[in-house]
Amino acid sequence: MALVTKPTFVCMIVVFMLLVSLCSSEPNTVEAVGYDYGQGHPKGPEQWGKINPDWKLCSDGKSQSPIDIQSKSVKEFSDFVWLQTEYKPASAVLTNRGHDLAVVWKEDAGKLILNGTDYNLLHCHWHTPSEHKINGKQFIAELHMVHESSKGERVVIAVLYEFVNPDSFLTKLLPFIEIIKQDDINLGKVDASVIQFDHGRFYKYIGSLTTPPCTEGVIWIVIKKVENVSIRQIVDLKQAVGEVYNLNARPLQKIEGRTIWDSELITSSPPQSSPPQGDL
């Protein structure tokens, strides 16, 4: 994990003032989404499993996400693990799903290959602050890249962020994030290869979707190396979803005896990919 400098006191004050300004934004209604993230709210995380019978796993599941990954408790993989991404430019839209912003690919955007199985890239979205924690530490944001196999099995890559420099992918999206309302915005061809993360160092465990219906059996790949994001970019993400959902991280879930695997030192580096292409 790269060493980063802590925000100065002045920087923290700026963050606070910018986040306060979000209160003036037009909020998305809870009714439209069906749930929210407020602790103790009638439609908050503790109630998700009771709101809809199809969401029962949110309350009763035994393999729920997110979790706090404690490095002292993880186990090294006993077998060789191959993680490779083969993304390519494909038509995509930016959509406001009420509870988050997502880039959704409308064509074949490539795939993730995990131990020989292909998982096609479907979409990516952001949570602020991070949903997963590492050794008790929560980060300023978390990106989820959602993939699915031909059998309907899901793999989610989770990338964590701290305040340092702007994220290059969000920089390209900024003009669209600033104007998005309820209608999707056509982004043209988007190559997910521009999303920066370290393929070779990650934690892996079996969990769930972190939003209703909280479906289990999801393979989580939590990247160890923390990436950079700017204050402005976080403010823009929060502004776009409004006051109700600008804190859209599900509380931590119990590990329930699950094993968390550590890839370090035995996961292969992927082949060098071609330079990213496309409109974005």
Task: Summarize the structure in short.
By secondary structure, the protein is α+β, with helices and mostly antiparallel strands. It is 16% helix and 30% strand. The strands form 2 sheets. Strands 2, 3, 4, 5, 6, 7, 10, 11, 12, 13, 14, 15 and 16 form a 13-stranded mixed β-sheet that branches. The protein has a 3-stranded mixed β-sheet with strand order 1-8-9, with no helix packed on it.
Task: Kindly describe this structure.
With 280 residues, the protein is an alpha+beta fold. It is 16% helix and 30% strand. The protein has helices at 9-20, 30-33, 48-51, 57-60, 168-177, 231-241; strands spanning 68-69, 75-76, 83-87, 90-96, 101-105, 110-114, 117-127, 133-134, 137-138, 141-148, 154-163, 185-190, 202-208, 216-223, 227-229, 261-262. The strands form 2 sheets. Strands 2, 3, 4, 5, 6, 7, 10, 11, 12, 13, 14, 15 and 16 form a 13-stranded mixed β-sheet that branches. The chain has a 3-stranded mixed β-sheet with strand order 1-8-9, with no helix packed on it. A hairpin with a 5-residue loop joins strand 10 (141-148) and strand 11. Helix 5 (168-177) packs parallel to helix 6 (231-241). The two termini are 28 Å apart. The model is unreliable at 1-27 and 265-276 (pLDDT under 50). Its cofactor is Zn(2+). Residues 33-264 form the Alpha-carbonic anhydrase domain. Its EC number is 4.2.1.1.
